[in-house]
Amino acid sequence: MKSFLSVVLLFLSFAVQSDDMRPAALRLLVQDEGQVAVTWRLPLQSDNQPIPLNLKIDGKAIDFSNALAYRENLYWVAKVTLPLESTFDLLVEGLAVNRAEVIVSIDNGRGNSSTYNLNAEAASLTIDMTRQNNGLFNYLRLGVEHILEGADHLLFVAALLLLVRGIKALLATITAFTFSHSITLVLASLGYINLPGPPVEAVIALSIIFVAREVIQLERGKTYFSVQKPWLVALCFGLLHGLGFASVLAQIGLPEDGIIGALLMFNLGVEIGQIIFVLAVLSLTKALSFVAPAWLMARLWPTYCIGSVASFWMIERMAWF
Question: pTM for this one?
């Protein structure tokens, strides 16, 4: 971890923009007589306005001006009921400009669900409501993307890497983090835990600040319980991070006929992304350690950077209360 600063500074170039990998979500529920209940969820921007995405079905823009609309945590939600054929073309405009993606979930009313993903490269698709495609691999991909684009979760892991001494302690700490966030991810996604999103996100930022402080104290020669047992810190704060992971699934929705499978795939994706990040940081810092100047070898600089960004996030997220 000696060359950690350069790695963290590269990461901070986009991390300061906050953990905003919140996809839009479109849910279609087939009702009687060819009617389809449409739920359109758009992430709110810093000005409290939803990201400007336009939904078109068979070339016609869907008007949500008279829809039932409300704010739910960090999303703008609109609901309408439309008469739709069993097969239609779906297009979302504005994905490339806004660097956004949409998770489309369909319930055909007969116990079958399908899941699709729309992004800048694939902004349209033809939907056949009579066919089933549970799309579980979309949840695997979403899990990987959420952890790799979730700056706050990665900075927490980065802070743990700075705090931990020794490969055995590192393995125990990462395992504890995985175990604890998996528990709350499952419990929250199944509805057994229900906490408001903004306070959870603010406390997640606070968890990063706490670990950064412990690293600073360690560098000053002070050893606390968190240094002796970092796995316990990861275990406790991992419960909060699991709630953050679950908030993504809460906004998108889980297929009714494949809830457990979708949860497992999403959690597996999170773990894959986490392993990729840890291995990338360890490999890069090892390589840089051979060529880095002495001032780049310190741990305090990256720790202050991590703590500063996390403090910014905490203040920003408290404003959402």
Answer: 0.73
Question: How is the chain split into domains, by residue range?
Answer: 4-19+150-318, 24-135
Architecture of domain 24-135: Sandwich (2.60)
Render pLDDT for 191-201 as a digit per residue (tens, 0 to 9). Answer: 888 887 778 88
Beta carbons within 10 angstroms of residue 141's beta carbon: 16
The residue ranges of the chain whose pLDDT is under 50 are 2, 5-6, 9-10, 13-14, 17-20
Strand 102-107 and strand 24-30: the pairing is parallel
- C-alpha distances (whole Å) from 295 to each of 73, 133, 283 are 43, 54, 20
Over residues 167-188, the pLDDT tens digits come to 888 888 988 999 999 999 989 8
Q: Convert 145-174 to b/e letters by CB count within 10 Å (16 or more is b).
A: bbbbebbbbbbbbbbbbbbbeeeebbebbb
Give the number of other CB atoms < 10 A from CB of residue 278.
17
Q: What is the pLDDT of residue 14?
A: 46
pLDDT at 184: 93
Alpha-carbon distance of 263 to 251, in angstroms, equals 14
The pLDDT of residue 54: 94
Structure tokens at 175: 């395992």
Quick one: pLDDT at residue 260? 82
Note whether 111 and 257 are within 8 A (CB). Answer: yes
CA triple 88-89-94, angle to 5 deg: 145
